[in-house]
Amino acid sequence: MKRLLRVLSVACIAAAPMLLPATAAAQFAKPEDAVKYRQSALTVMSSHFGRIAPVVRGQQPYDAAQVKADVAIVAMMSKLPWSAFGPGTEGGGAKPAVWSDNARFKQGQERLHGDIDKLVAAADTGDLAQVRTAYGAVAASCKACHDNFRNR
Ligand code: HEC
Asked: Taking Cα atoms as reference points, which of 139, 42, 148 lies closest to residue 104?
């Protein structure tokens, strides 16, 4: 029994480094992989965000459950791109300012997350007027960051 415990504890110590979160850079084998990953996440986020546009413009009937489902995907996908902007992954459609003015880039992410939290809450109410207001704030967050950090 004692020996088994010792073997187990040695095994746990040996496995510990593998359980530590990998650094952002180590998540991708090549910089191109990071670019592809962040662009893919942004594309999926944008697709689901865009599906809500005709609803808030009154061009499509308001299906509260559908909007809630799309907003949930936007919220989830919005967490993913940022770890793929690590050092050495310059390029894609990103301006050099992402790296040279990284604190401001991070502020843009925080603004987005704050506005998406409000959109999630608005979608939960089932009230189109609230969804419309919150949607507009998120769209402004997208645009503000793109103006500074994304190539046209
Ligand atoms: C904190 C900054 C920031 C915010 C906020 C942001 N984006 Fe972007 N977005 C970028 C950058 C930088 C790129 C360029 C990424 C690249 O090509 O490497 C980009 C690229 C994209 C792309 C192109 C992806 C591709 O395939 O090339 C889409 C679509 C997009 N964003 C949609 C959105 C939408 C929709 C929102 C808001 C819901 C949003 N973004 C919010 C910074 C941001």
From this structure: 148
Q: Using a 6 Å cutoff on CB, does residue 146 contact ligand 1?
A: yes
pLDDT above 70 covers a percentage of the chain that reads: 83
Mutate to test the pocket of ligand 1, among 51, 142, 148 (most ligand atoms within 8 A of CB): 142
What domains does the chain contain, in order, with CATH numbers?
30-79+97-152 (1.20.120.10)
pTM equals 0.87
* pLDDT at 81 (0 to 100): 98
User: Could you read off the pLDDT of 18-62 as tens digits, one per residue?
Assistant: 544 445 556 899 999 999 999 999 999 999 999 999 999 999 999
Q: Does 28 sit in the ligand 1 pocket, CB within 6 Å?
A: no
- pLDDT by residue (tens digit) across 54-64? 999 999 999 99
What's the CA-to-centroid distance between 26 and ligand 1, angstroms? 22
How confident is the model at residue 27, as a pLDDT? Answer: 87
| Best of 42, 106, 143 for a ligand 1 pocket test (most atoms within 8 Å of beta carbon) | 42
The encoded tokens of residue 82 equal 């940022």
